[in-house]
Specification:
2 domains, alpha/beta, 18% helix, 267 residues, seven-stranded mixed sheet, seven-stranded antiparallel sheet, Elongation Factor Tu (Ef-tu), domain 3, binds flavin-adenine dinucleotide
């Protein structure tokens, strides 16, 4: 696994407190799969733990890796101060990623991507890859924002994009489930929808409850708080239903962050 210094190629503030950082990281960009993440270290020896950030895009040809992050605490505050040319330590790629091959099922006629807040960026890489692999399948993308959207255009080449926001500043006023109901997602015994999602736990919990009314397979990316990022510290357990019916706790970073939606037990 790659663990070394990479250089910031560019960085911009897309919206207040939300940054797009592009890194020169050819090895990582070549390997990356949608739904995977990297661990980024702050250039400050007093902050030992890395910060996990999902891969928003990976350009294998140019060797560039795009991350989008919100400033929430000391680590992300430090990232936001770094200018292009700054070197940062990065470990990755980490995590299992979304299972793209599930979209090959002939009965899957509709692919739905649902992103909530900072869970939206990894859906971009996923949308592009699914579009390249399954151009014949329709992709509908539902992105939920608190208010004004800070990303949208980038999704347009890959399918239909719907925004939902709490205050209705753009798109549908309501949550992503209201928007999906409004857009009438149809499934029957011969047609199945495949839904991939990443976002806040309450959103995924609601999707899990809502999906029972449909013939739908779901995959959830759990961006829980993490410590080490590779399974050594047991700091990010997820409660999961096993195939034999037993319940087990697994590290999100080691076994995930993507799990079958029906297996995740939200508390
Ligand atoms: C697999 C994975 C992928 C992620 N991808 C992204 C991404 O693409 N973009 C992005 O902006 N963030 C992402 N996160 C969250 C990001 O890692 C945290 O926001 C970051 O580590 C916070 O570091 P900090 O030092 O700035 O804040 P801290 O000082 O550590 O925390 C400040 C505040 O942020 C909250 N916080 C910290 N970590 C998380 C978390 N994982 N989820 C929710 N709240 C948190 C804390 O509870 C606290 O209130 C991801 C997390 C995981 C586990």
């Amino acid at each position: 696994m790659f663990c070394d210094y990479v250089t910031i190629h560019s960085q911009e503030e897309m919206a207040p407190g939300i940054f797009r950082m592009v890194l020169d990281a050819p090895e990582v960009a070549r390997e990356a799969k949608p739904g995977q993440f990297v661990n980024l270290y702050v250039n400050d020896p007093t902050k030992l733990l890395p910060r996990p950030i999902s891969i928003c895009e990976a350009d294998a040809e140019k060797g560039l890796l795009t991350l989008i992050y919100a400033v929430v605490g000391k680590g992300t505050e430090a990232f936001a101060q770094y200018a292009p040319g700054t070197k940062l330590r990065l470990m990755g790629v980490l995590g299992n990623g979304f299972p793209l091959e599930r979209a090959a099922q002939p009965e899957v006629k509709e692919i739905i991507l649902v992103g909530g807040g900072l869970g939206i960026p990894p859906m971009l890489f996923l949308a592009r890859k699914l579009h390249e692999m399954y151009p014949e399948k329709g992709i509908r993308m539902f992105n939920g924002f608190r208010s004004t959207p800070w990303i949208e255009e980038e999704f347009h080449p890959y399918g239909e994009v719907f925004n939902a926001s709490d205050d209705g500043k753009s798109g549908f006023q309501g949550n992503v489930i209201d928007a999906m109901e409004y857009k009438l997602i149809f499934t029957d015994k011969d047609t199945k929808a495949l839904l991939y999602t990443c976002g806040p736990i309450p959103m995924m919990k609601a999707i899990q409850k809502w999906q029972t009314g449909y013939n739908m397979e779901t995959w959830f990316s759990l961006e829980e708080r993490m410590g080490c990022g590779f399974g050594a510290c047991a700091g990010c357990p997820a409660k999961l239903r096993m195939p034999d019916g037993s319940i087990k706790k697994e590290g999100v970073c080691k076994m995930g962050p993507v799990f079958p939606g029906e297996d995740v037990i939200f508390e």
